[in-house]
Amino acid sequence: MAALATVAPVVEVACRAGEEFVHLYYETLDKRRHVMAPLYSDASQLLWNGWNAHGLAEVMQLLQKVPSSEHTLSSLDCQPIPASASGGASSVLVSTEGQVRYEAEHNTHHFTQQFVLSEHEGVWRIASDCFRFVG
Protein backbone atom coordinates (compact mmCIF):
# COMPACT_ATOMS: atom_id res chain seq x y z
CA MET A 1 0.00 0.00 0.00
CA ALA A 2 2.89 2.40 0.66
CA ALA A 3 4.03 2.06 -2.96
CA LEU A 4 0.53 2.87 -4.17
CA ALA A 5 0.46 5.98 -1.99
CA THR A 6 3.70 7.26 -3.57
CA VAL A 7 2.43 6.62 -7.11
CA ALA A 8 -0.95 8.31 -6.60
CA PRO A 9 0.39 11.92 -6.66
CA VAL A 10 2.36 11.19 -9.85
CA VAL A 11 -0.73 9.81 -11.56
CA GLU A 12 -2.78 12.79 -10.35
CA VAL A 13 -0.27 15.26 -11.82
CA ALA A 14 -0.19 13.29 -15.10
CA CYS A 15 -3.99 13.27 -15.33
CA ARG A 16 -4.31 16.97 -14.53
CA ALA A 17 -1.59 17.91 -17.05
CA GLY A 18 -3.14 15.67 -19.71
CA GLU A 19 -6.67 16.97 -19.22
CA GLU A 20 -5.57 20.61 -19.29
CA PHE A 21 -3.41 19.98 -22.32
CA VAL A 22 -6.16 18.20 -24.30
CA HIS A 23 -8.62 21.04 -23.73
CA LEU A 24 -6.05 23.61 -24.89
CA TYR A 25 -4.83 21.49 -27.82
CA TYR A 26 -8.18 20.80 -29.49
CA GLU A 27 -9.52 24.29 -28.80
CA THR A 28 -6.41 25.75 -30.46
CA LEU A 29 -6.37 23.24 -33.32
CA ASP A 30 -10.01 23.89 -34.18
CA LYS A 31 -10.15 27.67 -33.70
CA ARG A 32 -6.63 29.15 -33.73
CA ARG A 33 -4.38 26.67 -35.50
CA HIS A 34 -1.91 29.39 -36.51
CA VAL A 35 -0.85 29.81 -32.84
CA MET A 36 -0.10 26.13 -32.09
CA ALA A 37 3.71 26.41 -32.23
CA PRO A 38 4.17 26.92 -28.46
CA LEU A 39 2.54 23.52 -27.83
CA TYR A 40 5.39 21.76 -29.67
CA SER A 41 9.16 21.76 -29.12
CA ASP A 42 11.94 22.18 -31.68
CA ALA A 43 12.44 18.39 -31.58
CA SER A 44 8.76 17.36 -31.78
CA GLN A 45 7.62 14.59 -34.08
CA LEU A 46 4.17 14.41 -35.69
CA LEU A 47 2.71 11.41 -37.49
CA TRP A 48 -0.62 12.49 -38.98
CA ASN A 49 -2.46 9.60 -40.59
CA GLY A 50 0.70 8.40 -42.37
CA TRP A 51 2.32 11.80 -42.99
CA ASN A 52 5.46 12.38 -40.95
CA ALA A 53 7.01 15.66 -39.75
CA HIS A 54 10.12 16.20 -37.60
CA GLY A 55 10.90 19.48 -35.88
CA LEU A 56 8.75 22.50 -35.19
CA ALA A 57 8.86 24.00 -38.71
CA GLU A 58 7.78 20.75 -40.41
CA VAL A 59 5.09 20.08 -37.79
CA MET A 60 3.57 23.52 -38.31
CA GLN A 61 3.70 23.14 -42.12
CA LEU A 62 1.87 19.80 -41.90
CA LEU A 63 -0.77 21.14 -39.51
CA GLN A 64 -1.48 24.06 -41.84
CA LYS A 65 -2.20 21.58 -44.67
CA VAL A 66 -4.94 19.86 -42.67
CA PRO A 67 -8.38 21.36 -43.42
CA SER A 68 -10.19 23.34 -40.72
CA SER A 69 -11.73 20.97 -38.21
CA GLU A 70 -14.09 20.43 -35.31
CA HIS A 71 -13.12 17.68 -32.84
CA THR A 72 -15.41 15.99 -30.31
CA LEU A 73 -13.73 13.70 -27.79
CA SER A 74 -15.32 10.54 -26.48
CA SER A 75 -12.44 9.26 -24.34
CA LEU A 76 -9.25 10.46 -22.68
CA ASP A 77 -6.59 8.54 -20.79
CA CYS A 78 -3.40 9.85 -19.22
CA GLN A 79 -0.48 7.84 -17.84
CA PRO A 80 2.79 9.05 -16.36
CA ILE A 81 5.90 7.76 -18.14
CA PRO A 82 8.60 6.63 -15.70
CA ALA A 83 11.61 8.96 -15.63
CA SER A 84 13.83 5.96 -16.39
CA ALA A 85 12.02 5.58 -19.74
CA SER A 86 12.02 9.27 -20.67
CA GLY A 87 15.58 10.41 -20.10
CA GLY A 88 14.77 11.77 -16.65
CA ALA A 89 12.18 14.29 -17.84
CA SER A 90 8.66 14.36 -16.44
CA SER A 91 6.55 12.89 -19.25
CA VAL A 92 2.94 11.86 -19.77
CA LEU A 93 1.28 9.62 -22.35
CA VAL A 94 -2.08 11.09 -23.38
CA SER A 95 -4.49 9.00 -25.46
CA THR A 96 -7.67 10.42 -26.97
CA GLU A 97 -10.44 9.07 -29.14
CA GLY A 98 -13.32 10.84 -30.82
CA GLN A 99 -14.91 12.23 -33.95
CA VAL A 100 -13.64 14.96 -36.27
CA ARG A 101 -15.45 16.86 -39.00
CA TYR A 102 -13.43 18.74 -41.62
CA GLU A 103 -14.43 21.87 -43.47
CA ALA A 104 -16.66 21.19 -46.49
CA GLU A 105 -17.35 17.58 -45.41
CA HIS A 106 -20.67 16.29 -44.13
CA ASN A 107 -19.33 13.06 -42.63
CA THR A 108 -17.36 12.74 -39.44
CA HIS A 109 -14.25 10.58 -39.09
CA HIS A 110 -13.47 8.45 -36.04
CA PHE A 111 -9.91 9.05 -34.81
CA THR A 112 -7.41 8.17 -32.13
CA GLN A 113 -4.54 10.40 -31.11
CA GLN A 114 -1.64 9.78 -28.75
CA PHE A 115 0.69 12.42 -27.38
CA VAL A 116 3.85 12.17 -25.36
CA LEU A 117 4.14 15.36 -23.34
CA SER A 118 7.43 16.35 -21.72
CA GLU A 119 7.88 19.03 -19.10
CA HIS A 120 10.75 21.48 -19.51
CA GLU A 121 11.17 24.36 -17.04
CA GLY A 122 7.55 24.06 -15.88
CA VAL A 123 6.05 24.02 -19.39
CA TRP A 124 4.50 20.93 -21.00
CA ARG A 125 5.27 20.52 -24.70
CA ILE A 126 4.47 17.81 -27.23
CA ALA A 127 7.43 15.51 -27.84
CA SER A 128 5.47 13.09 -30.03
CA ASP A 129 2.02 13.32 -31.63
CA CYS A 130 0.37 10.45 -33.53
CA PHE A 131 -3.05 10.96 -35.16
CA ARG A 132 -4.88 8.12 -36.99
CA PHE A 133 -8.28 7.64 -38.54
CA VAL A 134 -9.89 4.40 -37.38
CA GLY A 135 -12.87 2.37 -38.47
How many alpha or pi helices? 2
Kindly state the percentage of residues in helix.
Answer: 25-40%
| Total E-strand runs | 6
**Which regions have little confidence, pLDDT < 50, spanning 5+ residues?**
none
The major sheet is characterized as: 6 strands, mixed
What is the gyration radius calculated from CA atoms?
15 Å
Structural class based on helices, strands and sheet pairing: alpha+beta
Which term fits the overall shape?
A: globular
Order of strands across the main sheet: 2-1-6-5-4-3
Q: N-to-C SSE series?
A: HEEHEEEE
Instruction: Please report the distance between the alpha carbons of the first and last residues.
Output: 41 Å
How would you describe this structure to a colleague?
By secondary structure, the protein is of the alpha+beta class. It has 2 helices and 6 strands. It has helices at residues 2-31, 56-65, and strands at residues 40-48, 51-54, 69-81, 91-102, 108-120, 123-133. Strand 4 (91-102) and strand 5 (108-120) form a beta hairpin.
